[in-house]
Amino acid sequence: MRTRVVGIAAGVVSWVGLALAVVLVVHVVLTVGGANPDNVITSFVKAVAEPVALAFKDLFEPGDAKLRVIVNFGLAALFWLAVRAIVLKLVRRLN
């Protein structure tokens, strides 16, 4: 039973961490690609990505807005992938 619970927890942690990173990367792609900011998909992704980026969203402030999004939201995506890896290791140790 414990093995199953740990497996389920590891799966949830894995998918959540990956989903957070994907949202951030999609925001970067839409911004760099010049997606219409008034589009429903673009505005939804931005609305989700901004709180997920935590304090990274304004960590660096280069003059170019696209570079700002690449660096800050890219770092936030890497952060969530690192958190995902660390938490997965901890959860799997419970097994």
How would you describe the overall organization of this protein?
- By secondary structure, this protein is mainly α.
- The model has no long low-confidence stretch (mean pLDDT 95).
- The protein is elongated and about 50 Å long.
- It has three helices and no strands.
- The N and C termini lie close together (10 Å).
- The chain is 77% helix and 0% strand.
- Helix 1 crosses helix 2 and helix 1 (2-32) runs antiparallel to helix 3 (65-93).
- It comes from Lentzea miocenica.
- The chain crosses the membrane at residues 7-30, 69-91.
- This is YGGT family protein.
- Keywords: Membrane, Transmembrane, Transmembrane helix.
The portion of residues forming beta strands comes to under 5%
Number of strands: 0
- Integer-rounded radius of gyration: 16 Å
Rounded to the nearest angstrom, the distance between the terminal CA atoms is: 10 Å
Order of helices and strands: HHH
The oligomeric status of these chains comes to single chain
Residues in helix, %: over 70%
SS class: mainly alpha
| Largest sheet features | none
Total number of helices: 3
Whole-number average pLDDT? Answer: 95
Query: Which geometry do the CA atoms define?
Result: elongated
Unreliable runs: none
Protein name: YGGT family protein
Transmembrane segments: 7-30, 69-91
Keywords: Membrane, Transmembrane, Transmembrane helix
